[in-house]
Hints:
Elements: H1 13-19, H2 42-45, E1 53-54, E2 59-60, H3 77-102, H4 125-131, E3 154-155, H5 167-171, H6 177-186, E4 189-199, E5 202-211, H7 216-223, E6 231-234, E7 243-247, E8 251-252, E9 259-269, E10 272-280, H8 286-300
Antiparallel strand pairs: 1-2, 3-4, 4-5, 5-10, 6-7, 7-9, 8-9, 9-10
Amino acid sequence: MSTEPADAAEPGTAAAAEQAPAxxxxxxxxxxxxxxxxxxxxxxxxxxxxxxVFGATGPDLVESGAEPARRRRRFGAGALFLxxxxxxxxxxxxxxxxxxxxxxxxxxxxxxxPKPTYPAERVDAAALAAAGPxxxxxxxxxxxLLIDRPAGSTDRTDGDGDGWLSAADRAxxxxxxxxxxxxxxxxxxxxxxxxRWKSGDDTYRVMLVQYVPESVVKAITGMVPSGTxxxxxxxxxxxxxxxxxxxxxxxxxARSTETYYYGEAIARKGTVLMTVQVYAKNPVDRAxxxxxxxxxWERLA
Length: 301
């Protein structure tokens, strides 16, 4: 008599029954629409919006919270050229410094300043003065070199009446006084002495103007008018550096409508410029102008 239950199966029957698929409960409809797509849970599949990371073989997904891999930077030709330009001077300076520092120092030449010497004997003051540059050949009081005004004439000396004439007083004797003042200072004006008188209808002015040595030639050149077509130009006897000007036509005074005839004699003695001027109502007496100029020149000589 058997002890196994009546519904007991043979060995392997139960395992076979579990592996055998269950019969379908219904037949699938081939015309049914596909099931809707349901995305996986973010906790299980990671962040669905994370960008893919491309590796050597293809895109790789980045795990949630991980930093994406950075692309390797490549240097172009411009960056390499700039690096060479900047590194070239630095390397050259380093090489030059290394070469120069390894050389022995070059000694500087000795100083060749002459040793001061002093004469053993006493110096003669007269000989020393003679060896130096000569002083101004005309110095002292210029007023003593002026000729005396003729007897019977009226004194009309310019300036303060003491015979000295400043640059401003000298410039006022010209119509364009402002320009003349600037020109005289630029020409090296030093000082001036004058005497002025009136005889009848004629006015005479004798003036000695001293300039610095470097400017006297320029000063006498500027005193000679550039346009002398309306004047008789000559020299007075005994002086080759003189100029004698006598106007052919009358002029008008700067501050009035009165007319006059003009004459002037110019000569230079060293650094002193001599001028003799005449303002006449009638044409200038040339002989009288030459006589005054010659007498003044003889006082300077």
